[in-house]
Amino acid sequence: MDIKYAKTVLEAEAAAIKTLSARLNREFQKAVRLILACQGRVVVSGMGKMGIIGEKISATLASTATPSLFIHPAEAYHGDLGRIVRDDIVLLLSNSGETDEVIRLIPTLKKIGTKIISLTRSAKSTLGKLSAVVLELGKIKEACPWDLVPTASTTAALALGDALALTIFRHRKLTREQYAFYHPGGELGRRLLKVKDIMRQGPDNPIVRTDQTVKQALIVITRKRAGAVSVINKKGSLRGIFTDGDLRRHLETDPQILSRPIKEVMTPRPRNINQNALATEALHLLKDKKIDELPVVDDKYNVVGMLDIQDLLEVGLV
What we know:
Blueprint: H1 2-23, H2 26-36, E1 42-46, H3 48-63, E2 68-70, H4 73-76, E3 89-94, H5 100-103, H6 106-112, E4 115-120, H7 126-129, E5 133-136, H8 152-172, H9 176-181, H10 187-191, H11 195-198, E6 207-209, H12 214-223, E7 228-232, E8 238-243, H13 244-251, H14 262-265, E9 267-268, E10 273-274, H15 279-289, E11 293-297, E12 303-308, H16 309-314
Parallel strand pairs: 1-2, 1-3, 3-4, 4-5, 6-7, 10-11
Antiparallel strand pairs: 7-8, 8-9, 11-12
Helix pairs in contact: 1-8, 2-8, 3-8
């Protein structure tokens, strides 16, 4: 019985979304063009359940390169209207189009000079009549037995907000890397990190020249808190790698190892990776070859950094 009823709720909400496809018209296109041309931010506001949906729409806009913020209508009326400027666009949500807390914002918004887009049941509502653009939901029957609890209407509003945000996002033509810029802490951001974003570089890059000794290389490894050094020639090109593991192995057979030139004991032509490669590619290489460090080179094969398995661990890739 419970499963059967739950299915009717899902079917009601799915039907509400389906009806929106037939309602999309030039008003939707006007909203897209208006937001694309916006020099400010998209300020979203709504009351109650529609306010919660508005927060999500604002978050989706912001994460897809459209600057946006949410303002609670009650707080807006007590000072937060000062956050809105003429170049902003205000997106107001109200299913009925008559929500008092939302409607009473409009006179001040008109004085500011910002354009209003409304997401509401009907263009004939008070909110609809006072908006530059109206995204109509139409009359939606709620999924609850009394047709009162905001369910199907809020689902439809959320879906319409997603359609708006993603249509705008499509016009912006961002690359996956540019999208990741807005998600540096998320899974996508981690997967699109480049080696140069996390490698040890500058003063933290452990390097020695081919004419230096093993002792000098060991000092660099210790000071840089690294597990290896890249060995370079006078021009900065990669010639080899020497690890603390190499040192331990050589000490068993060569007591004079510390005074030896590094070029005599280094591993020549080591595995390396370009600074513009994805960090996930570096992780695959480290795991596949069962190594802990990778010299990082630029397009001219000059050493620009060192990537340690610990660096990948710190950003959550391991």
